[in-house]
Amino acid sequence: MAAGLRFPLDLAAGEKRTLTFRVTCSGGQAAVPELTPWTPQSLLRAAREVRPGWAQR
Prior knowledge:
This protein is mostly helical. It has one helix and no strands.
């Protein structure tokens, strides 16, 4: 992890924001959701194939 890596963000009292961090292992690539063929349904199906009994949350 990069030392001192920071993302300053000012929020007003009660304000909410959604933050998305795309993280990958060294030498890997983070997929761009808009450009991937995966859908929530296909990801769930793949997860169940790898780990039978995996529950949808």
